[in-house]
TrEMBL record:
This is Transposase. It comes from the Bacteria. The lineage of its organism: Bacteria, Bacillati, Actinomycetota, Actinomycetes, Kitasatosporales.
């Protein structure tokens, strides 16, 4: 049974991406990725 949600996995993925490839400034995602994940990505990682 998988207890990791797409949003939680997305956050982990984006943080790791930012650590390794800090020049990435834009990502695309479907409408399911909203709220805190989007805010964190925009405000902390500076990715839109």
């Amino acid at each position: 049974m998988n207890t990791l949600t797409d949003r939680d996995g997305g956050l982990t993925l984006l943080v790791r991406l930012h650590e390794r490839h800090w020049r990435v400034t834009r990502v695309w995602a479907d409408g399911g990725y909203t709220g805190q994940l989007v805010n964190y990505t925009r405000e902390v990682l500076r990715v839109v």
